[in-house]
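Need tokens for this chain, all 256 residues.
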Amino acid sequence: MSAGALLTGCGTDGTGDTGASGASGAGTDSPSPSREQESAAKVLWMGDSIAGVEGPALEAALTASGVEFMNASSDGGGTVVEGDEMSSRLAESTWEDLEENIASFRPDVIAYQITTYDWGTPEQQRSSYEKLAGTARDAGAELVLVSAPPFRIDDFYRPYESAIESAPEVAGEVAEAGGGRVHFLDSAQLWGTESDAERAQRAPDGIHSCQQGSAAFAAWLSEELGERYDFAPAAPEEWADGSWTGDERFAQLGCS
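Here are the structure tokens for all 256 residues:
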């Protein structure tokens, strides 16, 4: 599958266009020689399994752009929100892992995609996101909060729908008060807001993304991070056809 085919449909109404939808050609997971000499930034990627399935494409895109990348997402967890009993239990593991990852990787940027488990009151969400901002600051890193894509609210998620809706609003408020070291990126620019719309590019489960959606997200987030951290995102033909497209997670999701 060509880079152009992978990115076909990105921003179909124009608002989510990454500027790369017409790219084509053989891709690679390796950065070009000119980018290998010095890392433009070090990005620690956090979130749940939605972030996890976006991770292979994001790693390929950022590595090709000269950015060091660590995928610290967690299937079935990944939240930092210390809210109800379940989310607090998941968050405990996330905070422990974060401490270890900061010590070993020493990121410049901690990018946290709001998870499907950020359950709690707006006050609990705010406290947790502020704690994450403080942790990033103490580590000498900036924090980028990214809203989750629209996903199917089934019987499992329905009891937590109000928390799912409030999380990005609270994250945006925390970013506004972050003194320029906390940023909020609204991925609705790419995905829209309806999980069953073609633009949302959801996998058959209505929650995760397949290769095309993950590539679209990687191109979009690379552009956003490049603007903030002064690096030029690699063109999709450098990475979109790489070996990441064969990641077993896509097969498990029923992606073609």
